[in-house]
Amino acid sequence: MSESIGESRNQASHNMFESRSSNQYGNSAGIEVRNLSYHYGKMQALDAVSLTLSNGINMLLGPNGAGKSTLFSLLTGLKTTSRHNVKGVRIKTSTKGAAPKPTCEISVRGVNLQNTRTDIMRSMGVVFQQSTLDLDLTVQQNLLYHASLHGISPKTALRNIEDVLLTLSLNNKLNAKVRRLNGGHRRRVELARALLHKPSVLLLDEPTVGLDIESRALIIKHVRTLTEREGLCVLWATHLMDEVTSADNLIVLHAGQVKAQGISNKLCAHYQVGSVAELYRQLTANMEAL
Amino acid sequence: MTPMTYLYCMNGIVKRDVLRFLQQKTRLLSVLVRPLLWLVVFAAGFRSALGISIMEPYSTYITYQQYITPGLGGMIILFHCMQSSLSMVYDREMGSMKVLLMSPLPRPFLLFSKLVAGAILSTFQVLIFLLITRLVGVEIELMGYVYAVPAIFLIAFFLSALGLMLANLITQLENFAGVMNFVIFPMFFLSSALYPLWKMQEASMVLFLICQFNPFTHCVELLRFALYGQVNEIALGVVFTSAILACSIALITFRGRS
Fold it and tell me: At residue B64, does pLDDT exceed 60?
């Protein structure tokens, strides 16, 4: 099946409301996507998607087949075109700090994608929808492997592992084989892995699916605390409306298009609905009927 | 990115593959059982049927066990490399490959490290096999081991790259077994692993020519000469060139797929 990314004339008209002000979590930073289209053969997976994600939690809501995973694959560089060009994509990354570090702005057309990818991957942590832990290895071995892939020395990695496992209440699981962990612990290990190299951008693809209430609550709490403390830019794809708070930047993606983007409570007010669930139903109703 | 960054990364990839291999004890056992069966049972049965005359690198008449030992070493590498590529297809289907691909280091380097890991594991397995063959009377001089290690590593690197190339071409896990039948068995049987090529020439000129063009024949001959402390320049040239070619194609096709 041929895959390609194309530029569309469609625009950022979906951004009906301003995203969170940049000073809420420090200097503005995050992910910027402009007019991103992607199709598998004749099937349009993403249609002129434009997103501006500032620091803080950015909730991505969308039904199955909305294009969330394709978007994640493009942002993480797992999908590219055969010509190694990503048309219309600009991803900005920077880390928190008093003085803004030079922003890495990428306009891939005609630019070396390899260099671009390196910069992006260094500042990005990802929890994939599907578990990607090595079941036969211990928690420590899994994390050390990830650290080595980021070129972190074993000594530094061990220190980071200790810190991150402690904050996720997993320090007693260091030498446990992943196969012996329950679903909640595995998910937390994946989150620990995503945070190990201290990223400034965190992509979470349905990280709480299939977890019990307690595990979900722990992950949500930890990510929110960390986001506020470290000034992370988090893109959190979910089906679960109750994970969205009124202050979150909300993006509703449906049939490959951004149906709405803005602060959750402002969007609800604009559409005159009482909850995110109602908003979601309203924005996706027409397409569901088809 | 400093050289140390790359070193940590390669070290991590090799260590992870070694750990995974050590976790699967039955895998090591099965890797050794197959060639040992050939050596102990098959070679015993065919010992009288297949007389081996004096030929390079041998300076005298040798037993059939002695003749097929390099071929069986090659068989271990071939099976291990193909199994590794199968696990890469599995990793890709299960999503584990994403972890590797999310590394900020260049993908060709990551894949090169995977090939190095595969080559190290293969070298380790063949050395164990060669030590065991002493029990059935196959004698190898110390210099033979010294020459064999780099030869095995180069062969394993080539076959790992070939396996990666195949893994890139295979879209579904289910297709892998079929492809293996079209790769492993023809490569093994159409080589000098089990019989000298002059015997094949007597039987069929066409098969003889195919055997000569089969890079695995040169892998076996490289190892055969190395075990006697010698270098077969032609075999070395063919295996080295094939390794570069297979590695380049594997990296290009992988980038295309990703």
Answer: yes
B99 interfaces chain A, CB cutoff of 8 Å = yes
Please tell me the total count of domains within chain B.
1
Question: What is the distance in angstroms between the Cα of A145 and the nearest Cα belonging to chain B?
Answer: 5
Q: Which residue has the tokens 């992943």?
A: A178
Is A92 within 8 Å of A29 (Cβ atoms)? yes
Domains (range + CATH), chain A: 3-17+27-123+199-289 (3.40.50.300), 130-192 (no CATH)
Residue A83 dihedral angles phi and psi, to the nearest 5°: -90, 5
Residue A195: its pLDDT value, please?
A: 92
Give the per-residue pLDDT at B53: 64
pLDDT-derived band at B198 (thresholds 50, 70, 90) equals confident
Give residues with Cβ within 8 angstroms of B51, minimum separation 6.
B61
Contacts of A154 in chain B (CB under 8 A): 8
The pLDDT tens digits for A139-183 are 999 999 999 999 999 999 999 999 999 988 888 999 999 999 988
On average, the pLDDT of chain B sits at 86
Nearest-CA residue of chain A relative to B113?
A149
Domain of B109 in residue numbering reads as: 3-257
Contact call for B20 and A134, based on CB within 8 A = yes
Amino acid at B234: I
Token reading at A104: 């890495």
For residue B103, which residues of chain A lie inside 8 Å, CB to CB?
A: 121, 149-150
Sheet containing A233-238: give its strands across.
A124-127, A201-205, A233-238, A56-61, A249-254, A257-263
Highest average pLDDT, of A47-61, B179-193, B223-237, comes from B223-237
Question: ipTM, 2 decimals?
Answer: 0.85
For the record, the structure tokens of B153 come out as: 């590593």
Closest residue in B to A153 (Cα) is B8
Provide the residue type at B30 as one letter: S
Return the DSSP state at B135: G
- Residue A272 to chain B, least CA–CA distance (Å): 41
